[in-house]
Design a protein that fits this description.
There is one protein chain. This protein is of the alpha+beta class and 844 residues long. 49% of the residues lie in helices and 16% in strands. It is built from 25 helices and 25 strands. Strands 15, 16, 17, 20, 21, 22 and 23 form a seven-stranded mixed beta sheet that branches. Strand 3 (93-108) and strand 4 (111-120) form a beta hairpin. Helix 23 runs antiparallel to helix 24 (807-833). The relative contact order is 0.11.
Length: 844
C-alpha cells in the first residue's frame, strides 16, 4: 500500500511538471469517456433499467398471439374478463394485476387540465410492492364493484408540483371527467408507473372504466375488447416458459367458450379457425412495457457503438502520447534500471501515471457527460414528451460505468507503452543514442495511426449516410403544404359531453375559429397525422373478392370534418368532399355502438389497391369482414395520397368517415390554416375556446413544421450526433497523425540535414515525409472502407432512400478524411523542409 501511495505522489509530480502533455492527454480522454458516459446514461435509463419495484425479475407480461376477433386498444393487451379468469385460475403466479393508460380531464380549485391517468386493479400496488408517501393505496376492495369506488391516488411528483406537497389533499375531491373522486393517497417517491414514456399523474381503480374511458360501456364484460395489460408475479422457481406451458391449456378452453358467443354468429369459418389458434405468450415484465423502447433501441445501440469507436481513437492517441513521452524518458529509465530497479517496479509506476491520467480524464468526461445529456434532452426530446422520465444526473450505475471505462483505459492503453519503455539498450541509451534504440516505437505508433484513420472513416461514412437519410426524409414532405398550419387537440367527452352535444360543440368551434381575422380555414380529424398514431379497421369492399381468406381490406381510418382536406390543402381528385349534410348513420348490429355513417371517402392508394383502375365513386364499403357484412357506406370522393403515421412509412390505403355521421365521438385534432404566421394567432385561438367552454383543456398545440420536426427526432438525433462524433474522431485521428509525423521528423533530423547539405531541395524533403503520410492514409482507407460496408449493414433499417454502399457518401467521406489527414501530415513535412542543415547535423 505504501508503494502505491508513493507511486501516486510521484505520478502527480511528474504530470504537474509536464502541463502541456497532461492537458492534451486529459482532454483527449475526457472527450472519449464523456461521449460514452453521456450515451450510456440514456441507454441505461431507456433500455437497461428495471422497474423500481420489489424483485422486478419475477414480473411477467401476458400477451395474446394470433388473429383476434374484435377490437384492440394498444399493444400487449387482453380483455378484462380474460385477465380475471387468469387471475382466478392459475397456479404459477403469486399474484396478478392489470392496468390501462389513458388521459383524463382533471379539475381542482376551478382549474381544469388534461393529465395522464392509469387505471389499475386493486392488486396493482401490493403485487409491485409499491407503498405510499401519504395515505393508502388502491386496494382489492376498490375494484370489486363497477362504478363503486370513486377514489384516486396521486403520483408523488404530481402531488409536489400541482398541490405543493400539501398533506391536506387527503380526503379532498378532484373532478375527473366531470365525475367527483376522493384522494386516498400519494404513491411513493420515484414510482412513475410501469410504462416508459407514460408517467401517470393519477391512479384510478379499473372498475371506474365507465367514468374514465370514454368508449363502449361494456369493456369490463366484453371479451371482444382487448385493452388491459396483465402482469403476473411468478412464484419462486417458476420460469417464463413453465408459466406459458401452464397457461396455454386454460387459454384454449377460454377460446372454445368465446367462439360460441353471439358475437361470432356471423364470423366466417376461417375467422373462427384462426381465432382458435390464438395462444398466450409470457414476456419478461421486469422493465414494464413501452412503445418507445423498441423505437429507440437500435438508435441508442448505434450511438453507443459510435462513441465506443471515438473512445478507441482517443485511447490510441493516449498510447501514442505515452510512447512519445517514453522516448523522452529513455535515459531516466535506463539509469534506474542500471542502478538496480526492477522492470516490474518501473512498469507498475508507469501504469500508475497512466491511471492518474485516466482518472483525470474520467472526472472531466463525467462533467462533460452531464452537460451533454442536458443539451441532448433539450434539443432532441419534444417539449410535450414529459412522460419520458430521463435524468441527466449521474447515479451509482453511471459512476460505476465511468469508473470501469477509466480503469480499463488506463491499464490497457498504458501497459504497452510501459512495457516498451522498460526495454531499452541501457548501454546505448546512457551514451545518448536514444534515437537509435527507440526506433521500434515508430512502427507501433504508425499502426495506431492507421487504426485511427480506419475508425474515423467508418464514423464519417456512417455520419454521411445518416445525414443523407435525414435529408431524404425532410425533403419528402407529408404530401401537402405544411407552412401556416397549426394543430391542437381538444376532447369535449372528457368534460361530460355526449356525442350529439360534442357535434354541436365542434361545429360552434369551427365557426368561432373561422371568424378570427387571419384564419383561412379550419378542419377536424380524430387521428393526428405524423404522430405514429394509427386506427385501422377490417372492411368489406363491394365487388372485391379477396384472393385469400385473410386478404380483406384493412385500411387506416380517420374521422374528419367537412373542411379537413381544404384546410390541409389536399385536393379531391374524384367525386366530392364531405359537407355538413353528410350526417346520416344507420344501425348495422345489435350493440349500442353498432352504427355506421352512410358516406365515406378514400385515398388514391385505396382506389388502386381495391378497384384496379375503375371509378370507385358510387361503390360501397362496410365495416367488418364477416360473410354478409352490410356495405352501407357510399364512396363519395377520392383524395390525393398523403402521409399518415410518419414520413418514413409508405402511404397506406386510407378511408375517411365524417364525424357528423358518427355515433361515437371523442377527442379531435383541430387544424387551422392561417394567412400569416400561425404563432401570432395561437393566443386568439385559446381565447375563443375559453369563450365556448373554459373547463375544456387545450393540449398539444403546435405548428405542422414543428410536428414534422418532432416526427424526425430520432433520425435527427442519430444524424447530428454521428456527425459530431465523426468530426471529433477525425480531429483526434489528425492529431495522432500529426504527432507521429512530428516524432518521425524529429528522429530523422540528422538524415534530413545530410540530404539538404548534399543539395536536396525543400520540395524533395516535403515529398519524402508526405510519402509516409500518404501510405498511412491509404492503408487506413483500405482497411476502413470494407469495414464500414460490413458494419453499416447492421443499421440499414435506420436509412431511408439509399443503401449502405452509397457511392457519393463513400467518396465524400474518403476524400474529406484524406484531405484533413494530409493537412495534418503536411505541417511536420513543411517544418522538416525548413531545417538548417548545420543545426540538423549537430542534432544528438
Amino acid at each position: 500500500m505504501g508503494d502505491i501511495v508513493r507511486d501516486v505522489r510521484y505520478a502527480v509530480r511528474v504530470l504537474a511538471k509536464n502541463p502541456m502533455f497532461t492537458s492534451v492527454a486529459v482532454l483527449t480522454l475526457a472527450l472519449g469517456i464523456g461521449a460514452n458516459t453521456a450515451i450510456f446514461t440514456l441507454l441505461d435509463q431507456v433500455l437497461l433499467r428495471l422497474l423500481p419495484v420489489k424483485e422486478p425479475q419475477q414480473l411477467v407480461l401476458l400477451t395474446m398471439r394470433g388473429r383476434h376477433y374484435g377490437n384492440n386498444w394498444g399493444g400487449n393487451a387482453i380483455s378484462y374478463p380474460m385477465y380475471r379468469d387468469f387471475q382466478d385460475h392459475n397456479e404459477i403466479f403469486s399474484g396478478m394485476f392489470c392496468r390501462f393508460p389513458t388521459r383524463v380531464s382533471l379539475t381542482f380549485g376551478g382549474q381544469a387540465e388534461r393529465v395522464e391517468a392509469e387505471m389499475v386493479s386493486g392488486t396493482y400496488f401490493s403485487i409491485l410492492g409499491v407503498t405510499t408517501a401519504l395515505g393508502r393505496t388502491i386496494a382489492p376492495e376498490d375494484d370489486r364493484i363497477p362504478d363503486g369506488a370513486p377514489v384516486v391516488m396521486l403520483s408523488f411528483n404530481y402531488w409536489k408540483q400541482r398541490f405543493a406537497g400539501d398533506p391536506a389533499i387527503l380526503g379532498k375531491t378532484l373532478t375527473v371527467n366531470k365525475y367527483p373522486m376522493t384522494v386516498i393517497g400519494v404513491a411513493q417517491a420515484g414510482f412513475d408507473g410501469v410504462e416508459l414514456g407514460f408517467s401517470p399523474k393519477i391512479f384510478v381503480p379499473v372498475t371506474m372504466q365507465h367514468q374514465v374511458v370514454i368508449g363502449p360501456r361494456d369493456m369490463l364484460k366484453d371479451r371482444r375488447s382487448r385493452w388491459v395489460n396483465a402482469f403476473g408475479r411468478l412464484k419462486p422457481g417458476v420460469t417464463g416458459a413453465q408459466a406459458k406451458a401452464s397457461l396455454q391449456p386454460f387459454m384454449h378452453s377460454m377460446l372454445e367458450l368465446e367462439v360460441r358467443e353471439a358475437a361470432f354468429a356471423h364470423a366466417s369459418a376461417y375467422d373462427r379457425e384462426q381465432f382458435l389458434k390464438c395462444s398466450i405468450d409470457v414476456l419478461p415484465g421486469s422493465q414494464g412495457r413501452s412503445y418507445i423502447r423498441p423505437e429507440l433501441s437500435t438508435p441508442l445501440w448505434v450511438l453507443m457503438a459510435i462513441t465506443g469507436v471515438v473512445l478507441l481513437i482517443a485511447c490510441a492517441n493516449l498510447a501514442n502520447l505515452l510512447l512519445a513521452r517514453a522516448t523522452n524518458r529513455q535515459k531516466e529509465i535506463a539509469v534506474r534500471l542500471a542502478v538496480g530497479a526492477s522492470r516490474g517496479r518501473i512498469v507498475s509506476q508507469l501504469l500508475i501515471e497512466s491511471l492518474c491520467l485516466s482518472a483525470l480524464g474520467g472526472l472531466t468526461g463525467l462533467a462533460l457527460a452531464f452537460w451533454a445529456d442536458k443539451a441532448l434532452m433539450a434539443v432532441y426530446l419534444p417539449v410535450d414528451s414529459g412522460g419520458l422520465k430521463i435524468s441527466s444526473a449521474p447515479d451509482l450505475r453511471i459512476l460505476a460505468f465511468t469508473l470501469a471505462v477509466t480503469i480499463v483505459t488506463g491499464l490497457v492503453f498504458g501497459l504497452v507503452p510501459a512495457l516498451k519503455a522498460t526495454k531499452p539498450d541501457i548501454g546505448k541509451t546512457l551514451k545518448d543514442q536514444a534515437g537509435a534504440v527507440v526506433g521500434g516505437h515508430s512502427g507501433l505508433r504508425k499502426t495506431l495511426v492507421v487504426a485511427q484513420v480506419a475508425l474515423s472513416l467508418l464514423l464519417l461514412i456512417g455520419a454521411g449516410l445518416f445525414l443523407r437519410s435525414l435529408e431524404n426524409l425532410s425533403s419528402l414532405g407529408p404530401g401537402f403544404p405544411a407552412e401556416r398550419l397549426v394543430g391542437f387537440n381538444i376532447d369535449p367527452s372528457l368534460g361530460g359531453y355526449t356525442p350529439d352535444r360534442s357535434k354541436i360543440f365542434y361545429q360552434q368551434l369551427t365557426d368561432s375559429l373561422s371568424s378570427i381575422s387571419g384564419v383561412q380555414s379550419v378542419g377536424l380529424a380524430a387521428v393526428r397525422i405524423l404522430e405514429n398514431d394509427e386506427w385501422d379497421s377490417g372492411m368489406t369492399v363491394e365487388g372485391y373478392t379477396p384472393a385469400k381468406a385473410d386478404d380483406h381490406a384493412q385500411p387506416y381510418m380517420n374521422q374528419i370534418g367537412p373542411n379537413y382536406f381544404a384546410t390541409l390543402d389536399v385536393p379531391v381528385v374524384q367525386g366530392r368532399d364531405f359537407t355538413p349534410n353528410d350526417n346520416r348513420e344507420v344501425k348495422n348490429g345489435p350493440k349500442p355502438d353498432d352504427w355506421t355513417p352512410t358516406a365515406v371517402m378514400i385515398n388514391q392508394s385505396f382506389a388502386r389497391r381495391y378497384f384496379s383502375g375503375q371509378n370507385p365513386v358510387g361503390r360501397h364499403l362496410g365495416f367488418g369482414t364477416d360473410p354478409g357484412t352490410h356495405t352501407d357506406m357510399e364512396i363519395i370522393g377520392v383524395v390525393k395520397d398523403i402521409k399518415y403515421t410518419n414520413l418514413r412509412d409508405d402511404i397506406p390505403p386510407q378511408a375517411f368517415i365524417p364525424y357528423l355521421g358518427s355515433h361515437f365521438l371523442a377527442s379531435m385534432t383541430v387544424y387551422v390554416r392561417t394567412k400569416s404566421d400561425p404563432s401570432q394567432l395561437m393566443p386568439l385561438v385559446r381565447a375563443k375556446i375559453r369563450e365556448l367552454d373554459p373547463n375544456l383543456p387545450v393540449y398539444d398545440m403546435r405548428t405542422m413544421p414543428v410536428q414534422i420536426s418532432n416526427s424526425l427526432t430520432t433520425e435527427r438525433m442519430i444524424a447530428s450526433l454521428a456527425t459530431v462524433f465523426g468530426f471529433l474522431a477525425t480531429l483526434l485521428a489528425a492529431i495522432g497523425l500529426y504527432g507521429v509525423m512530428a516524432y518521425t521528423v524529429s528522429q530523422r533530423k540528422r538524415e534530413i540535414g545530410i540530404r539538404m547539405a548534399l543539395g536536396a531541395e525543400p520540395g524533395e524533403v516535403i515529398w519524402m515525409v508526405m510519402r509516409d503520410v500518404m501510405w498511412l492514409v491509404a492503408i487506413g482507407v483500405a482497411v476502413g472502407v470494407p469495414a464500414s460496408l460490413a458494419l453499416m449493414r447492421a443499421v440499414q433499417s435506420q436509412l431511408y432512400g439509399l443503401s449502405t454502399h452509397d457511392p457519393l457518401t463513400l467518396a465524400l467521406a474518403t476524400v474529406g478524411l484524406a484531405l484533413i489527414a494530409l493537412a495534418a501530415g503536411y505541417l511536420p513535412a513543411l517544418r522538416a523542409s525548413r531545417l538548417d542543415p548545420m543545426t540538423a547535423l549537430r542534432y544528438e
